[in-house]
């Protein structure tokens, strides 16, 4: 009913665009719609900002459903590895976890575009590699935080055939954006709706890409459904800087939609008892005024996504007009997820809970299964390797991720052997993005694992204050019952049918490897612990013959102190050399 209702509202407006798109080939002088594209496929990547899975935003996007969900494959267990914009986007473009990029924040000194440049990645990331492999590369929308009207050309982002980037301090201002086209000065689009501006620029790049004799990779990165932010300076350390957070802004044509929608009232929405760990346990329950505003913010998120929904529809119709849809892969994802009220949290991200790390990933293209959903575990570290694989580019050994299978047969084969875990990590603080309680919560630094396999569905984390969390997601999908909190340890003796001590010892050893892994060590962490190859999953590791190995021999994850960035001195014991097992670490009883 919802899809039909929203589709009907858009039908007349979207239908009016058809006349504009029909003569594109004629306008460009293309006699053959497949001219110059040979057999190498193209990729269009639509990357939204802060889009959720668990607040049901995809249910309100009928055109994404029509073109992507119904005609492609949905990866329901796709995760970002750092739940905030800049570190997550750097991971997307490098195939490396944040502890290997050392870009762990949205602002300097630990993150942002300046840190990306200082770390040497401006010449060592996806668009550069694609160009080296014969691809034209185009990008419009948000690239990184602190990519500003002052530093956009010092240096300019490398690797793009053409680009038109959103720039701070106007990136998140829906009605007062500033863009910078490659080789030109920044241009203000005050009064124009940001997503619509991105849309028109994307179409221009698609036109240019089709005229070229090379295959192409086009990224379209609107800011929706991120909150609207007013900033009076792009210098985050300016003592007079003003940040004003408010709900996302919709296009005027969508302002009347979803008047009765509210944040889904899941069990973890503003619960009567505090949940989680560390600073979350001190959060007050939200009052009615606070919840009413959060419902308004939720509706504005849905409304802001309607222009993205239209963008997707028009991209598909252009690809069809050009006759290249059947040789183009279309990816749809978001940099991180989002929470609104879960665990009593104000709107935002930055936590390791499912709302923040489980993000959309939909793929459509040649050979991709239609109207298919898979629960194989994938992450943002896997996207660069996947692009390489689909485009016929040899894999890089320093990728931390693995290729995502996209055909039905490959997905089925992967179920038996694919990595079953995601390494999740964060440094610094978390803050609310609405009108209520803008406190910056310090010591929001943690390492975690999300692991899913036969008979287990778990989340395990260690915070920088050395608090531990474990959730059995089959029995507690809302993550309300921390099995490692002091009261629970006495009450719960088993998880996944096994003694909790036995399970956590394995998870901690795996996390110990992953928290400082590189390349193959990230991709094959169990094999690093077991070089003989007899352990490939948690199920294998739980065999009784490994009890002493895990419960006695292994070093434990433990922070020395809380840091706002990736400082080795703060990280505690590290996996110093591949294949070397520490023998004198903390035992289980010392931290439970």
From TrEMBL:
The conversion to 3-oxoalanine (also known as C-formylglycine, FGly), of a serine or cysteine residue in prokaryotes and of a cysteine residue in eukaryotes, is critical for catalytic activity. One of its GO terms (biological process) is phenol-containing compound metabolic process. It catalyses: an aryl sulfate + H2O = a phenol + sulfate + H(+). It comes from the Eukaryota. CDD domains: G6S. Its EC number is 3.1.6.1. One of its GO terms (molecular function) is arylsulfatase activity. The keyword Signal applies. The modification 3-oxoalanine (Cys) is found at residue 85. InterPro entries: Alkaline_phosphatase_core_sf, Arylsulfatase, Sulfatase_CS, Sulfatase_N. It holds the Pfam family Sulfatase. Keywords: Glycoprotein, Hydrolase, Signal. Residues 41-393 form the Sulfatase N-terminal domain. Residues 1-19 form the signal peptide. Belongs to the sulfatase family. This is Arylsulfatase. It comes from Mollisia scopiformis.
């Amino acid at each position: 009913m919802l899809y039909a209702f929203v589709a009907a509202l858009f039908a007349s407006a979207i239908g009016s665009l058809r006349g504009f798109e029909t003569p594109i080939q004629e306008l460009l002088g293309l006699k053959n719609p497949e001219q110059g594209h040979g057999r190498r496929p193209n990729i269009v990547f639509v990357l939204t900002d802060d889009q959720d899975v668990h607040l049901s935003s995809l249910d309100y996007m009928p055109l994404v459903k029509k073109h992507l969900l119904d005609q492609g494959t949905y990866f329901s267990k796709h995760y970002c590895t750092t739940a905030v914009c800049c570190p997550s986007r750097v991971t997307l473009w490098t195939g490396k976890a944040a502890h290997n990029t050392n870009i762990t924040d949205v602002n300097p000194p630990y993150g942002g575009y300046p840190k990306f440049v200082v770390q040497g990645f401006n010449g060592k990331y996806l668009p550069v590699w694609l160009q080296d492999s014969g691809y034209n590369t185009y990008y419009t929308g948000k690239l990184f935080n602190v990519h500003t009207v002052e530093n956009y050309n010092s240096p300019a982002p490398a690797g793009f055939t053409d680009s038109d980037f959103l720039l701070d301090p106007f990136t998140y201002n829906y009605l007062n954006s500033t863009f910078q086209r490659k080789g030109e000065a920044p241009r203000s689009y005050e009064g124009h709706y940001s997503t619509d501006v991105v849309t028109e620029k994307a179409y221009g790049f698609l036109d240019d890409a089709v005229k070229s004799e090379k295959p192409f990779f086009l990224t379209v990165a609107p800011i929706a459904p991120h909150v609207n932010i007013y900033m009076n300076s792009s210098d985050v350390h300016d003592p007079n800087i003003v940040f004003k957070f408010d709900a996302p802004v919709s296009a005027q044509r969508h302002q009347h939609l979803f008047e009765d929608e509210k944040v889904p009232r899941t069990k973890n929405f503003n619960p009567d008892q505090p949940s989680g760990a560390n600073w979350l346990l001190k959060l007050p329950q939200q009052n009615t005024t606070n919840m009413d505003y959060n419902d308004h913010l939720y509706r504005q998120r849905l409304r802001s996504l309607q222009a993205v929904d239209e963008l997707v529809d028009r991209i598909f119709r252009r690809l069809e007009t050009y006759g290249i849809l059947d040789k183009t892969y279309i990816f749809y994802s978001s940099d991180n997820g989002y929470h609104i009220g879960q665990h009593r949290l104000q709107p935002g991200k930055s936590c390791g809970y499912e709302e923040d790390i489980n993000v959309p990933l939909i793929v459509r293209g040649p050979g991709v299964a239609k109207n298919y959903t898979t629960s194989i575990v994938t992450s943002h570290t896997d996207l660069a390797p996947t692009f390489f694989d689909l485009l016929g580019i040899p894999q890089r050994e320093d990728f931390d991720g693995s290729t995502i299978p996209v055909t039905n047969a490959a997905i089925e084969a992967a179920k038996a052997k694919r990595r079953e875990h995601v390494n999740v990590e964060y440094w610094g603080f978390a803050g609310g993005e609405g009108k209520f309680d803008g406190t910056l919560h310090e010591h929001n630094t943690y390492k975690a694992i999300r692991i899913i396999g036969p008979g287990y569905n778990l989340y395990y984390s260690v915070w920088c204050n050395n608090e531990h969390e474990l959730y059995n997601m089959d029995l507690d999908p809302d993550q309300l019952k921390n099995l490692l909190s002091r009261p629970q340890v006495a009450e719960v003796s088993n998880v996944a049918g096994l003694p909790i001590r036995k399970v956590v010892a394995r998870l901690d050893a795996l996390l110990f490897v992953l928290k400082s892994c590189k390349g193959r060590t990230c991709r094959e962490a169990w094999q690093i612990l077991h070089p003989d190859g007899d352990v490939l999953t948690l199920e294998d590791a739980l065999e009784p013959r490994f009890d002493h190995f895990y419960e006695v021999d292994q070093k434990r994850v433990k922070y020395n102190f809380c840091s706002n960035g990736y400082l080795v001195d703060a990280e505690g014991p590290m996996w110093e050399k591949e294949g070397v097992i520490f023998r004198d670490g903390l035992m289980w009883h010392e931290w439970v």
